[in-house]
Amino acid sequence: MKKPLFTLVLAGLPLLAGSAMAEESFSQWLFTLDRMKEFRPVDNETYAEECGACHFAYPPGLLLAMSWQKLLDPVALEDHFGENAELGEDTLAEIQAYVIENSAENSYYKRARKITRSVQSIEPPLRITQVPYIKRKHHELTAAMVRDNPEVGSLSNCNACHTQAEQAVFDDDSVQVPNFQHWDE
Amino acid sequence: MHQYSLVLLVLLGLAAASAQSEQTPTAEQGRQLWIKEVLGAKGDSRACTTCHGTDLTQAGEHQRTHKLIEPMAKSVTPSRYEDPKKVAKWFRRNCKWTWGRECTAEEKRAILSYLKSQ
Hints:
The complex is a heterodimer of chains A (about 180) and B (about 120). With about 180 residues, chain A is mainly α. Chain A has one domain (about 45-175). Chain A has 7 helices and no strands. Chain A starts with a helix and ends in a 47-residue tail after the last helix. Mean pLDDT of chain A is about 85; it is low at about 15-20. Chain B is mainly α. Chain B has a single domain (about 25-115), classed as Cytochrome c-like domain (Cytochrome Bc1 Complex, Chain D, domain 2, Orthogonal Bundle), CATH 1.10.760. In chain B, α2 (about 25-35) crosses α5. The radius of gyration of chain B is 18 Å and the shape is globular. Classes of the chains: A mainly alpha (about 180), B mainly alpha (about 120).
C-alpha cells in the first residue's frame, strides 16, 4: 500500500531539482498551465529592435551561450555573416546579457533543451541552421521548398514558413511553406 | 485660339518639368550619391539603391534576408530621421557595407537632405 506513494515521491525528485535552475520559481513552474513547450518568446525590446531590424529576431534559446558570445563580439559584428551589424557599447551590453541569460542551456523550454542536448558532442555552431536538432527537424525539406522558393530562400528565414514564429511557436501545425500544400513532418 | 492653347500647354509642360528637377544643390548631390555604384568585395555592384531601391516612396528589401525596409522618403515615413543616434548607426553600418568605408560628414549631409526632400 505504501509502495506507490514512495514511487511517486521518488519520481517527483528530479522535477524539483530541475526547477531549481529554471527561469521561474518552483511554485510558478508547478502551477502554470503553460508547460514551456517551445522557446521563451523574445521579450527584450532592444534585442527585438536591433536584431529584428535586418532579420527575424531569433529566440535566444536557439543557440548556446558560447555561440552567442562569439556572434556578439564587437569585432565579429562588423562582419556578421557578410553584413555590418556594429552596435553601440551600451546597446550591445544589454543584448549580450539578455541572450546569454536566455540561451539554450539556460532555458527550460522544451526545444531549447533539445538544442542543448543536440550540440553536446560538437563545437557549438554559430549558425542556427547548423544546430543538429534544427538540421534533423528540417532534413526532409527540398531545395524547391526552401532555397529555390522565392518566398523563403534560406532556412534562416524562420518566419517565412513558421507562421507563429514571432510567438516562438514552431509546432508542425503552424507551418505553411509558401507555394506548397500543407507539409507534414 | 487652338494655337494659343497649344503654346499654353507647352509652357505648362516646361514649368512642370522644371519644378520636378528643382532641388537644392545639396539634395541633388545626395541623389547622385544615392545611385552611385561601387564594386563590392565579391565583385558585386553595390549602391544605396541595392536595398532601398530608386523610388524612395516604396519599401526596400534586405538583399540577404529579404526583410522589408520601410520607405526612406520622409513624406512616407516621417518618424525616420528623428533619432540622431539611430541615423548615425545606420550611416556607419551601411556606408561600410556599400562603399567599404565610412561616409564623410558632407556626404551624409547631402544624402540626408535628399532623403528628407522626398
